[in-house]
Automatic annotation (TrEMBL):
Descriptive protein name: Nickel-dependent lactate racemase
InterPro entries assigned: LarA-like (IPR048068), LarA-like_C (IPR043166), LarA-like_N (IPR018657), LarA_C (IPR048520), Ni_dep_LarA (IPR047926)
Ranges for domain LarA-like N-terminal: 8-213
Domain Lactate racemase C-terminal positions: 272-423
Pfam families: Lar_N, LarA_C
The organism of origin for this protein: Ventrimonas faecis
Amino acid sequence: MKEFLLPYGKEKLTAKIEDEHFAGVLLSELHSYKAPKSGAELVQEALEHPIGTPRLCDMAAGKKKVVVISSDHTRPVPSHIMMPLILAEIRKGNPDADITILISTGLHRSTTKEELAAKFGPEIMANEKIVVHDCDDKDNLVYLGKLPSGGNLIINRLAAEADLLVAEGFIEPHFFAGFSGGRKSVLPGVASRETVMYNHNSGFIADPHARTGVIEGNPVHNDMLYAARAARLDFIVNVVIDAAHDPIFAVAGDCDLAHRVGREFLASKCQVDAIPADIVISTNGGYPLDQNIYQSVKGMTAAEATVKEGGVIIMLSKAADGHGGKYFHETFRDEKDLNRMMKTFLDRKPEETIIDQWQSQIFARLLLKATVVFVSSCDDQLVEDLHMVPAHSMEEAMEKAKAIVKKDDYKVTVIPDGVSVIVRE
């Protein structure tokens, strides 16, 4: 019997797989990698040896308005480690800099004061200016021209008018942008709703290059990098984190060149070969990434890449906040025919992209391949609205999965953290 402790919210659930049914485990080496230094030391070292730019302290000299973009509550960025070092580096070169921390919510809800306090700690909360981006606040958005794809590039005024624009973030596999971090701080981070929705259009999402770990030829990435350059994103500080959300690698400097070094390190640790199976168990890595069903689609895409056609994905996600997207929920609740839903998405022009369409499109794609048994704290009706089979324990999920595959010789693959692996099919 194989046993796995799998992240579920802030807890763990145990999966037990009989030896004869066990196909294998897809595990990122990030979980076992031992960093040579502490997270703070790694970040400081990156700041002192930037890639493709001068040091941040030198860049800050003489600059009046400095904006530091920071991720929001949906990302486990260790800002309590990173931000004090970034601020100190800026003030080393310019003690009088007028610094604003801009929270890159993208299309997410506004980050609360409690979430900001948990993210930054009391000292930064008490002493720094923090502004939360609002993608619909037209008075505080600025037009910067056209994206290569033809969409309008509209971003937060604070970012656009900064004398020095800096971003902190983390690099992880991303299910259609290739990787998170770097250029994503601008688009979608501090962009307008119109800009984000155009970038997430159905044609881009359907492109075979818009996949986890793919940058070359990725149309989503190409627009994002253009946006970062147009916004004059001068300097980034990005980390790769382990399962405890501690930095194990850090890069700083140019938003593309430094990001490349970071994603090359990440890919070297988390690329795994698919192990095809009838049942695949995945997670979203626990809290904070499994707060809702919407975000949990990311962990499901890792399972999608290794589950057999017509198989079952068991997805563990506490999803205490429910569906996470009103339109995402309504799309699946109101349309029972997934093929018809997909055709509707693909027929829609980029400028007609609707809210949450990209997530719905990817979710529909994987539901057309496999049944999803969803282990969560959600109401059963909500899970069924989203075309999934509800379960509230690992044991219940396994029984339901076995009943669906209807095979005595079924095989099971386990992915302890679906958002930390790049599965090669």
